[in-house]
Amino acid sequence: MTRSDLNIHLNSLFSDLKEDTVDRIIYGAPHTEITGIAVAWMPYRETIQKAMDLGANVLVTHEPTFYIHRDLRDDHLGGQEVDDKREWLDAQDITIIRCHDVWDAIPDIWIPYAWAISPNWGHPASRSAITKSMTFHRRKPSSSQRE
């Protein structure tokens, strides 16, 4: 499977994916075979390095690589920090795939739900309490709150 094949597969998981989705290969060689995949929330340099150290040549990430939502699609995006990260990535054998819109659309794993089932919060009050923008939890008051 190539890195491009993985991107196509991920995008196929949500049938209503918009044409202007941010879910795409952000950086790297799309037609290289995959030897390992890592998944991360944020593609910080240290996260990318750790993925490579673990044997991944693909990092699937939720958030942008280059600090704004559309990543490198904006002509005005630049600056030393972006240039430094691009130069560093050019020297690496890793492809970064952004999986934001699909990840947010898949029931039971999309980001608002994933945060909602934090061990300290329990499960949401009901499935209807989960929306794309928020999750509602009803908690029983602790004994100190009842007094």
- Integer average pLDDT: 77
Flag low-confidence runs. Answer: 124-141
Largest sheet: 4 strands, mixed
Q: In the CATH classification, which architecture of the largest domain applies?
A: 3-Layer(aba) Sandwich
Number of strands: 4
The chain-level structural class is: alpha/beta
Distance separating the two termini: 60 Å
Strand proportion:
5-15%
CATH T-level topology of the largest domain = Udp-n-acetylmuramoylalanyl-d-glutamate--2,6- Diaminopimelate Ligase, Chain: A, domain 1
Please state how the strands of the largest beta sheet are arranged side by side.
1-4-3-2
Structural domains: how many: 2
CATH uppermost class of the largest domain? Alpha Beta
- SSE topology string: HEEHEHEHHH
